[in-house]
Amino acid sequence: MVWTPLHAKIHRTMRSRHLFERNQRLLVAVSAGQDSLCLIKLLLDLQSKWGWDLAIAHCDHRWRSDSQANAHHVENLAKTWGTSFYLETANEPINSEAAARDWRYQALSAIAQANNYQYIVTGHTASDRAETLLYNLIRGTGADGLQALTWQRPLTASIMLVRPLLEITRIQTEQFCQEFKLPIWEDSTNQDLRYARNRIRQELIPYLRENFNPQVESALAQTAELLQAEVEYLEKAAQQLRQKALAIGDEEDSLTLLPLRLNRRVLQKAPLALQRRVMRQVLQQILTDAPGFEHIEKLTALIIAPNRSQTDPFPGGAIAKVEGDWICFK
Predict the structure, then answer these.
(1) Burial tier of 230 (Cβ tally within 10 Å: 0-12, 13-18, 19+)
(2) In degrees rounded to 5, what are phi and psi of residue 310?
(3) CA–CA separation, 262 vs 9, rounded Å?
(4) Which end of the chain has the lower number of beta carbons within 10 A, N or C?
(5) pLDDT by residue (tens digit) across 22-58?
(6) Is 149 left (phi over 0), alpha (psi -120 to 50) or beta?
């Protein structure tokens, strides 16, 4: 086996970030694009050091005419490498990026649960992280959206999603594939500029790289990394504040039930950033859809509003009203 600087970097990253345990079962999502081929090659080469039991999973969205041939290509690679192979094919073509992502994670989770894999591993890179930051920034978001694509997150109680390549750019994965002559399957949809992410990848990132910062992808990925730690800290602080605001003079501690009361005096002592996060956490439990900026702002305004002030109905019909020291939901 040829040991490259990229092998050493990924090996160090997995140890320092505690991404995996030794002797675990890993299900690797492989599309046969350059990022996933780079990922599976690295994991196969590191397998002897970690004692992993590796398997390959491929999800066929059926949105390209060559998707079945793509799946067969991945299956043949799995046979060549002597790894187990799992294929999940959509019942109907999936044409939305968001729907495809949701279906893909559901499919991978089902395969992992049925076959006792503790980890699902994907080939997301620093380039993906940079693109996600820009995509969410353009749409409008807070720090949570800017730090999206984290190193790991639980998919179920027993399955962890892990992204070991978040410090590696797409240029590096391409060079790695070329060095080892890995058979990349070109996905034609990646060139389709009708998709916003493709326009960011094909037009915006190259423009920023040429005119502002040659290392823009790594710089944006580092920003996302810094924001991730700050978001984790703020979320925990907001959870503690929310519990304190719920607990004082109120036995109600379940946010899934109405009526619900929040103590305004407790919240008034907190910084605005934490006030907003508390209100978002409350609304996440009450609303069926994710709360928007306007929802959070009109609820936060009640912290210092005059007595008997109230909001107009939130989606679903709930109303928040000021009653003395309390914000009450009805």
Answers:
(1) exposed
(2) -150, 160
(3) 48
(4) N
(5) 999 999 999 999 999 999 999 999 999 999 999 999 9
(6) left
| CA-wise closest residue to 105 among 44, 34, 156, 178 | 156
Asked whether the beta carbons of 220 and 130 are under 8 A apart, the reply is yes
Rounded CA-CA distance 320/327 in Å is 6
Distances in Å between the Cα of 162 and the Cα atoms of 18, 256, 328 are: 10, 30, 40
pTM to 2 decimal places: 0.87
Using CA atoms, how far apart are residues 204 and 224, in angstroms rounded to an integer?
A: 18
Q: Residue written as tokens 């995509």?
A: 135
Distances 126 to 80, 132, 325 between C-alpha atoms, Å: 29, 10, 47
Sign of CA dihedral 93, 98, 101, 102: negative
C-alpha pair distances (Å), 92 with each of 48, 88, 258: 39, 12, 40
- In angstroms, the CA 248 to CA 237 distance is 17
Identify residue 40 by its one-letter amino acid code: I
Place of tokens 């690797």: 28
Q: Return the SS3 of 157.
A: coil
